[in-house]
Amino acid sequence: MVEKYILPIAIMGIVAGLIAFALSWSAKKFEVKQDPLFVKVKEIIGDINCGACGYAGCAGYTKALTTFEDNLGKCRPMQQESYDKIDALLKEAKKG
Fold first, then answer.
1. CA distance from start to end of the chain
2. Does the predicted model carry a pTM greater than 0.90?
3. CA 29/CA 65 separation, integer angstroms
């Protein structure tokens, strides 16, 4: 009785292993690398997504800042200490 379940279970295990391998490989192959400056600034800004800056979300504003398309100072909920940290990061990025 148990023998009739062994082959289907083995086949499912092999298929699952192949799918796991394919997913792992594709995750590495198609990984989207982010700009380290974007990641640092985004961590400081956070994810309030209030739209007060004129962008749909914090990620849009962060991208505009890190590509130097917009000026710092539009995020109303952000504290002065965060502004100072981001300003220092952006100045350092402009130099390098």
1. 71
2. no
3. 29
CB 58 within 8 A of CB 49: yes
**Residue written as token pair 């148990």:** 2
Is 31 buried (19+), middle (13-18) or exposed (0-12) by CB count in 10 A?
Answer: exposed
- Residue 62's closest CA among 96, 94, 33, 34? 34
Structure token pair of residue 86: 């981001």
H-helix or E-strand spanning residue 18: helix 3-29
Which CA distances in Å does 76 have to 11, 13, 51, 67? 57, 53, 10, 20
Q: pLDDT, tens digit, for every residue of 28-80?
A: 999 989 899 999 999 999 888 999 999 999 999 999 999 999 989 899 899 99
